[in-house]
Amino acid sequence: MLPVVRTPYGAVRGRREDGTAVFRGIPYAAPPFGPRRFRPPVPPDPWDGVRDVDAFGPTAPKPPYSEAFARCLADPSVPGDDCLNLNVWTPDPSPTARLPVLVWLHGGALTRGSSAVPVYDGRTFARDGVVFVSVNYRLGVEGYGLFPDAPANPGLRDQLAALRWVHESVTAFGGDPDRITLGGQSAGAISTGALIAAPQAQGLVRRAILQSGPPEVSDRAKVRRVVRRMANRLKVPATAEAFAAVDRELLLRTQAEVGRLSSPVLGGPAFGIVVDDDLVPRDPLEALTDGGAAPGVDLLTGWTTDEYRLWLVPGGLLERVDRLGAVALAGAMARCHCGSEVPRGYRALRPDAGTAEIVGQLVTDHLLRIPLHRLADGREAPSYVYEFAWPSNRPGMGACHALELGFVFDSGDEPDARKLAGEGAPRALSDAMHGAWVRFVSDGEPGWERWDAGHPVRMFGAGAPYTAHGPRDRELALWTTATDDAGENTTEDTTEEPSPATAPELRPVIGRLRRSGVLRRH
């Protein structure tokens, strides 16, 4: 018999798959188009009877990955306007089950990705007693464009609407609304950090998982520049009203053209979450460490050893960075707002490393490890930190950004997981990582000691997992010294690139890097 569950807006009928009840494409908000375009989400229209939800719903409008990145990352596209939908996998769709819940926000730089990515299949979490929910939300200019005539952060507001839907509805699917874990990777982790810090989300989340993404906000002026560049190409005013009148496919093509110079390594035009009047009233990292936000939310967070290799290897940029040598290093120093003493210290710690590795680790520490260390240090609730160190079987990829997902989801048998990991990924590593995540979602104890002054980090690599104490402390201490010497915080990132007024000598560096292709991304 097919499972039927009643939601606040009508009954839905899912499927049975290997003993799990699966509901795909449930609308949690109305289609964000027509008069609702660039506006905050509103509830969906109720329906009569039973609605079949047996296939993934439409995905948010997005440009495709470049050919090089498409060989590594899957990104299915499902047409349709009703893109504010979610999926539920549950072992027991009964109101009495009261099972732990994991709500997952996908990554993709806030411009790509969806809940339909095969690696995010929730069946393994349901198999192990967790109600798993994955969410679609608006992307790119539709979700994160900044306009004078529309509220900021509509994509983040979509995620909040989905989280409220889960809190209100998950009991009927067998979940416990008092045991909701919100998690995500990359942009999904950044979004998770913003949401647990948001005043409107307080009390909705018991635990949080941030994989390779810290709580952060983008500079409003930088996001406005992206919109203005698009407006200039489209020859329309930089307003939501004008953008809503543009053909959707043309808007996506223009977004892709403007964003082709975006790069985590050296910056560039990109969309991001910004401080606004209500949902994000201040920097979420500050709110979570200094402002007392989400005081009872347990945290699981970490990174991969070679995050930067996904950003540089697929398009052949690793070799270009090595060839550019000092020019690339100067660009990285500008990106990270640090002086030469920091890369000099990295050279001393890694005497055999090439320029690309030094640049990659500098930027990884600046963007990810330093703020995640600060987050764990500033929390009173338990925090648990990991590092994923198993190198991909694909040449040159190492333990790159997003590689851990196939292990966390125990979905390494999926062809799309093998696109990044290659053949022969270790079964025992999937068992260890997936088991740790299930334990954290279920009872808040992943299986190693909580973060303290000794900086314990659980290492997931080629052998059995083990705990290392302070494995990144020597590198991160270099930034503390640089901050003390300069009398300012060198990790703050509020500019797109060095301004002519403060770093004129670096303008030709940025130009040369762009001409070389280093700044071109997916």
From TrEMBL:
The keyword Transferase does not apply. It is an enzyme of class 3 (hydrolase). InterPro entries: AB_hydrolase_fold (IPR029058), CarbesteraseB (IPR002018), Carboxylesterase_B_AS (IPR019826), Type-B_Carboxylest/Lipase (IPR050309). It comes from the Bacteria. Residues 512-522 have a biased composition (Basic residues). Pfam families: COesterase (PF00135). Residues 485-496 have a biased composition (Acidic residues). Residues 480-522 are annotated as: Disordered. Residues 3-447 form the Carboxylesterase type B domain. Its EC number is 3.1.1.-. Keywords: Hydrolase. The keyword Cell inner membrane does not apply. Belongs to the type-B carboxylesterase/lipase family. This is Carboxylic ester hydrolase. It comes from Streptomyces cathayae. The lineage of its organism: Bacteria, Bacillati, Actinomycetota, Actinomycetes, Kitasatosporales.
